[in-house]
Amino acid sequence: MSVISKGQGSLFLLAMLAMPASGAAYAQPEDAPEGNITVNGQAVHEEAPEMTEGPQVQGIISARSGDRMQVTAADGTSTTVTITDATRIKAGSGLFGGSRNKPTAASLLNGLPVTVKTLHSGDGLVASQINFRNNDLKTAAMIHSGTAQRFDEQTAATEALRGRMGDIDQYNIKSTTNVHFDTGKSVLSPQAKAELCAAATAAEGTQNALMLVVGYTDARGSDDFNQHLSEERAGRVINYLQQNCGWKPYRMLTPTGMAKADPLASNDTAEGMAQNRRVAVNILVSKGLDGL
Question: Does one domain contain both 192 and 100?
């Protein structure tokens, strides 16, 4: 056992008191939690930098991934915000928070128009408050679940959301399938039926895909006859896609007949006219949503 004399003890104490304060008071233990420092043996937490107010974001929810939400504005620009436990979610006059049986962040469905108050957090934005309307939530939920309603109700609901995007008519064409008809007829051949269902099946794998059906004729016949025939062909295709191929009405844009316009080939030959007697099934994605 080592013995320290009274004189030695005094010298030892003086040496300890002479040590720099920084060496004793601010030693950081190896196992101290990150973000803490130790002062006189007591852990002191370093506060995170205060978040500052960010921009207000308006648009429709165009993508969700975990706690991240993308909002696409009317001009097609997209902003990604992070949803936290502190994010307040409001609809109308009701606050949707932690109360039982009230919607939470799970109510933030794709297609829902929202207004988001944000805070700057590092290089990103955090949602401090998200506002939407109850009626819009009901509409988005109907479209999201594909509930069975009359066609006109589904169309009205879908257009109500689409109308909130200023450039919804600007699309990227992902694919086009042409089905052909006999002269003066609108009857679908077995081959055409198979091609339509194949196109619908392929389109199911395209995120945010809509379908635009356009009917055409060759150059023979009067303008009035060809206009009616092109619309009738487009209608036959739409009915088959919905009734036999399972394509949902709310994913269908308003069809149109273009008569003899936009020929694929010359109308001076039988082969060219056969190519022009067609209905084009276009799979589209809005430029504001493409790639999500």
Answer: no
Q: Which tens digit of pLDDT belongs to each residue from 229-244?
A: 999 999 999 999 999 9
Do residues 289 and 197 make contact, with C-beta atoms less than 8 angstroms apart?
Answer: no
The model's pLDDT over 79-114, given as tens digits with 9 standing for 90+, comes to 999 999 899 988 874 333 333 446 577 878 877 888
Residue 4 counted as domain residue: no
Q: Look at residues 122, 141, 160 and tell me which one is the last residue of a structural domain.
A: 141
- Domains in the chain, number: 2
